[in-house]
Amino acid sequence: AIRCPIPENQQYPDKECIEGSCKKCSNKINDLLQPLQKYKNEDIKWHHWERVNAKTSKGEVKAITSCVQKDTTMSDFIDSLFDDLRSYPSHIFRANWQHQQMQKSIEMVDPNEVVMLMDYSENYRCVFQNEIQSGFFDQRQVTIHPSMVYYTENDTLVKHAIIGISPDTTHDAHLTKAFDDKALDVLKKQPSLGNLESIVEWSDGCAAQYKCKYSTE
């Protein structure tokens, strides 16, 4: 473990350990990387995930995450790995904490309330079993937007899957709003949700899809 143990009287690690500013945690990372130091002057090739600018098929420049090859010394690799390992506990803590809060939200769902988990799936490529050649080179895609909904019915927790499919592949806030409205139409038809009062929505927080005024109007 590269993070200090959680004290017995605490539920969560110390703030310094989570943020990567704890000296004890840093020493643990240094000890972990120490065997590599004897190669620090050697030249190596390695890959690192980074945000880079790339041109789209329309000639537009877009920032994407790409696996970039590096040609550096082992010392530079160790420094980069140290920074990544120091920030890793923060990422894991946030992911675990958010998952815990989501589980509590589902377990404590009230009558006339629903908890909805939403995210875009990969686009689905529509193919035919025996397609002609021109069809093979001109395949269409559709957007798939799964929503997993939780609510109670006769004091029993119900897990209801709603899958939205659309030929629109923009994945923008307007499409998100359309999927959301259709899901609500389905839920309002459920006998136990005739007096639906509140909705708790969970998503990946993408600003262009879920965290804007268009998708929540």
How would you explain this protein's 3D organization?
The protein is an alpha+beta fold and 217 residues long. It has helices spanning 15-19, 23-33, 74-107, 133-136, 173-188; strands at residues 43-55, 61-73, 113-118, 124-126, 140-153, 156-166, 198-202. Helix 2 (23-33) crosses helix 3 (74-107). It starts with 14 loop residues before the first helix and ends in a 15-residue tail after the last strand. The model has no long low-confidence stretch (mean pLDDT 91).
**So how many helices?**
5
What's the SSE pattern? HHEEHEEHEEHE
Low-confidence stretches: none
Shape by Cα distribution = flat
Radius of gyration: 24 Å
Q: What is the structure about, briefly put?
A:
This protein is of the alpha+beta class and 217 residues long.
